[in-house]
Design a protein that fits this description.
Helices cover 59% and strands 4% of the residues. It is built from eight helices and two strands; from the N terminus they run H-H-E-E-H-H-H-H-H-H.
Length: 171
């Protein structure tokens, strides 16, 4: 079962006033969906593929629009421990990445995190140089920032060390 409301919940906690009318907020919500599902292991029921700004799900985009009113009203409370746990785990990754690249926006930081993970773990064959590939594909992203975030993601076990051209995630 697909659940766009978890994405709405996290987005509204991290960025109050989040709106689908703004491109940066739509990008933010796509990256939240990817990170929650593919890194944190909370199966939301979406398939992500590579798009202009990294991982993207057409079905998530559709559901975010279709269920906006329902989601915003249903996750107005902080009493669900599972949601709080997901939010805490998500925030931990985001804060560590943001501290490494403080001048970048939240959406850009999450784009880097999600893109590095997808290149490392969810492409076939997995990239043997995710930072180099990301810098080539997205020249507007600081290579130094991407290198620092990649190292952090490896340190916390989100991305496994690449050996002999193979990498995997720890979800």
């Amino acid at each position: 079962m697909k659940d766009p409301c978890i994405v709405w919940y996290i987005a509204s906690k991290l960025s109050p006033g989040v709106s689908l009318s703004r491109l940066e907020d739509r990008l933010l919500m796509q990256k939240i969906g990817y990170i929650v599902q593919e890194i944190l292991g909370q199966k939301l029921g979406y398939r992500f593929s590579w798009y202009s700004y990294g991982p993207y799900s057409r079905a998530l985009s559709r559901d975010l629009h279709s269920y906006e009113e329902l989601c915003v009203s249903s996750y107005d409370k902080d009493d669900e421990m599972s949601l709080i746990n997901i939010l805490d785990r998500f925030t931990e990754i985001y804060v560590k990445a943001q501290m490494l690249c403080p001048s970048e926006s939240m959406a850009r930081i999450l784009e880097i995190v999600a893109s590095l993970h997808m290149l490392s773990a969810n492409t076939y064959p997995p990239s043997t140089d995710p930072v180099g590939d990301l810098a080539r594909i997205k020249p507007y992203i600081s290579r130094t920032c991407a290198e620092q975030i990649f190292s952090m993601l490896r340190e916390i076990g989100v991305i496994k060390t690449i050996e002999k051209g193979v990498s995997s995630d720890s979800a």
